């Protein structure tokens, strides 16, 4: 395994691999890897001849007052996990290379970014789509793997890839959860032991929603009300959003069906957590 920090070197290595007929599988991340990332890498190893991992804490997707400076970083630990998963190349550029002086070009996806995290984090998805588009240009992947925990991000990247005719297959991978059900996230490290216990309210809420849907409840408002009550029963829990959306358009639904997904963002203490689940699937 090799770690490459130079953008031009990375691009040349990947272009050479394509010329040799090698299939490039790519997993873009912000690092601080966990078992959820490992599941993406292991699937990428199965599907590609060259497995590339990027580690880049992207400044353009963080808003003012968010945790860019404090976002957890541990390249040595990441490299060990990556090597164990069979990664061939790690691309770990500096921000000055990705956004040099005078940088002025961004990618916007309209519509899908107006709701959910896009509403509460203005500019976030512009940063996401811009960096992913740049990484696709540098790495030249045949396929790229993303986790479904970031459900809206996956939908936005699929739309961007289709709209810009990018020759990249986008693969969505299932959420990886802790033994108690909490979705794995690099930000879980921020939680105190007490907050970690309270965070299980998100899992309970998703399970409650599924039980209501399976039991015949079809009112999105009624399900959201029940889910909100469960989360707000925890001290220091603050709801950013709870929405039931159509899985592709992300439009709010008033009546739930097989295409309904419940998405939520909740602050436990100072830590913002997101999770989601289809209403007719078990958590």
Structure annotation, total helices = 10
Spatial shape: globular
Main β sheet profile: 6 strands, parallel
Distance between the termini: 36 Å
Helix content: 25-40%
Average pLDDT value? 97
Structural class: alpha/beta
Alpha-carbon Rg, integer: 19 Å
Low-pLDDT runs of 5+ residues are: none
Order of strands side by side in the largest beta sheet? 1-4-3-2-5-6
The SSE order reads: EHEHEHEHHHEHEHHHEEE
Count all strands and give the number: 9
Measured by DSSP, the beta-strand proportion falls in 15-25%
Q: What's the SSE blueprint?
A:
Elements: E1 2-4, H1 7-19, E2 24-29, H2 35-47, E3 50-55, H3 75-84, E4 89-91, H4 95-98, H5 117-120, H6 124-139, E5 143-147, H7 151-163, E6 169-173, H8 193-198, H9 200-214, H10 220-232, E7 237-246, E8 260-268, E9 271-278
Parallel strand pairs: 1-4, 2-3, 2-5, 3-4, 5-6
Antiparallel strand pairs: 7-8, 8-9
Helix pairs in contact: 6-7, 9-10
Summarize the structure.
With 283 residues, the chain is α/β, with parallel strands linked by helices.
Describe what this molecule looks like in 3D:
With 283 residues, the protein is of the alpha/beta class. Helix 6 (124-139) crosses helix 7 and helix 9 (200-214) runs antiparallel to helix 10 (220-232). The longest helix has 16 residues, at 124-139. The model has no long low-confidence stretch (mean pLDDT 97). The protein is 38% helix and 19% strand.
